[in-house]
Amino acid sequence: MLDWLFTTALSDAAEPLQLSFQDAATPMMQGIIDLHHDIMFFLIIILVFVLWILVRAMWHFRAKKNQIPQRIVHGTTIEIIWTIVPSIILMFIAIPSFALLYSLDEVVVDPSLTLKAIGHQWYWTYEYSDYNSSDEQSLTFDSYMIPEEDLDLGQLRLLEVDNRVVVPAKSHIRILVTSADVLHSWAVPSLGVKCDAVPGRLNQTSILLEREGVFYGQCSEICGTNHAFMPIVVEAVSRKDYGSRVSAQLIPAQA
């Protein structure tokens, strides 16, 4: 019971009728949320202003008040204003968005861990390239969705897998994503990651997990009949516990 409460408390997954973002677990996701809030600030101001203009125009220039409509050819002042003001607003939006875009494309030179995710129809294969066994084979395992009838108490329907990806928290992690058959997409909302898995191509992204927890995601590229049944589960643990968790996965992988 305590294990279920602990896992549920640390789980990051979508909730029923949720409209906002999931809680950020990486600086990238926090930057995405902050940029969204910044844009919404300007969006609400523009929306209110445009609605005010429309209502004011319909009220003052209605047919009962103005039987003969006025003919306005042009207005130099207003044209200058509605050209300069939007340009300034776009500048305030562009500066943080470009900064975030470049940070998302930043490649970690010396990551603590390199994880390779391979998409299949319809499951994921993970490879810890930094950990080799005695026969020089890296730690590799498949991750399948747990059927609904096999779920334990507290596990999430259509989101739980038999083998989670265990990574250390507060560490730079490089993720290599590819596919063995068709297009897939490795996406975890709380981590701010959505990377396409393309056959014959190796895409790369980096994350820095700022806290421990269990983070749920799904394939975000329509890949066939069972596209909705290949979830992703990333479990971030402390560096102290990470070694034992990886060793526990390494033993069955070598058997």
UniProtKB/TrEMBL annotation:
<dbReference type="GO" id="GO:0005743">
    <property type="term" value="C:mitochondrial inner membrane"/>
</dbReference>
<dbReference type="InterPro" id="IPR036257">
    <property type="entry name" value="Cyt_c_oxidase_su2_TM_sf"/>
</dbReference>
<keyword id="KW-0496">Mitochondrion</keyword>
<comment type="function">
    <text>Component of the cytochrome c oxidase, the last enzyme in the mitochondrial electron transport chain which drives oxidative phosphorylation. The respiratory chain contains 3 multisubunit complexes succinate dehydrogenase (complex II, CII), ubiquinol-cytochrome c oxidoreductase (cytochrome b-c1 complex, complex III, CIII) and cytochrome c oxidase (complex IV, CIV), that cooperate to transfer electrons derived from NADH and succinate to molecular oxygen, creating an electrochemical gradient over the inner membrane that drives transmembrane transport and the ATP synthase.</text>
</comment>
<dbReference type="GO" id="GO:1902494">
    <property type="term" value="C:catalytic complex"/>
</dbReference>
<dbReference type="GO" id="GO:0004129">
    <property type="term" value="F:cytochrome-c oxidase activity"/>
</dbReference>
<keyword id="KW-0999">Mitochondrion inner membrane</keyword>
<keyword id="KW-1278">Translocase</keyword>
<dbReference type="InterPro" id="IPR002429">
    <property type="entry name" value="CcO_II-like_C"/>
</dbReference>
<dbReference type="InterPro" id="IPR034210">
    <property type="entry name" value="CcO_II_C"/>
</dbReference>
<keyword id="KW-0679">Respiratory chain</keyword>
<dbReference type="GO" id="GO:0042773">
    <property type="term" value="P:ATP synthesis coupled electron transport"/>
</dbReference>
<protein>
    <recommendedName>
        <fullName>Cytochrome c oxidase subunit 2</fullName>
    </recommendedName>
</protein>
<dbReference type="InterPro" id="IPR045187">
    <property type="entry name" value="CcO_II"/>
</dbReference>
<dbReference type="GO" id="GO:1902495">
    <property type="term" value="C:transmembrane transporter complex"/>
</dbReference>
<dbReference type="InterPro" id="IPR014222">
    <property type="entry name" value="Cyt_c_oxidase_su2"/>
</dbReference>
<feature type="transmembrane region" description="Helical">
    <location>
        <begin position="39"/>
        <end position="59"/>
    </location>
</feature>
<keyword id="KW-1133">Transmembrane helix</keyword>
<dbReference type="GO" id="GO:0005507">
    <property type="term" value="F:copper ion binding"/>
</dbReference>
<keyword id="KW-0472">Membrane</keyword>
<feature type="domain" description="Cytochrome oxidase subunit II copper A binding">
    <location>
        <begin position="110"/>
        <end position="248"/>
    </location>
</feature>
<keyword id="KW-0186">Copper</keyword>
<dbReference type="Pfam" id="PF02790">
    <property type="entry name" value="COX2_TM"/>
</dbReference>
<dbReference type="InterPro" id="IPR008972">
    <property type="entry name" value="Cupredoxin"/>
</dbReference>
<feature type="transmembrane region" description="Helical">
    <location>
        <begin position="80"/>
        <end position="104"/>
    </location>
</feature>
<feature type="domain" description="Cytochrome oxidase subunit II transmembrane region profile">
    <location>
        <begin position="13"/>
        <end position="108"/>
    </location>
</feature>
<dbReference type="GO" id="GO:0016491">
    <property type="term" value="F:oxidoreductase activity"/>
</dbReference>
<keyword id="KW-0479">Metal-binding</keyword>
<dbReference type="InterPro" id="IPR011759">
    <property type="entry name" value="Cyt_c_oxidase_su2_TM_dom"/>
</dbReference>
<comment type="similarity">
    <text>Belongs to the cytochrome c oxidase subunit 2 family.</text>
</comment>
<keyword id="KW-0813">Transport</keyword>
<keyword id="KW-0812">Transmembrane</keyword>
<dbReference type="Pfam" id="PF00116">
    <property type="entry name" value="COX2"/>
</dbReference>
<keyword id="KW-0249">Electron transport</keyword>
<dbReference type="InterPro" id="IPR001505">
    <property type="entry name" value="Copper_CuA"/>
</dbReference>
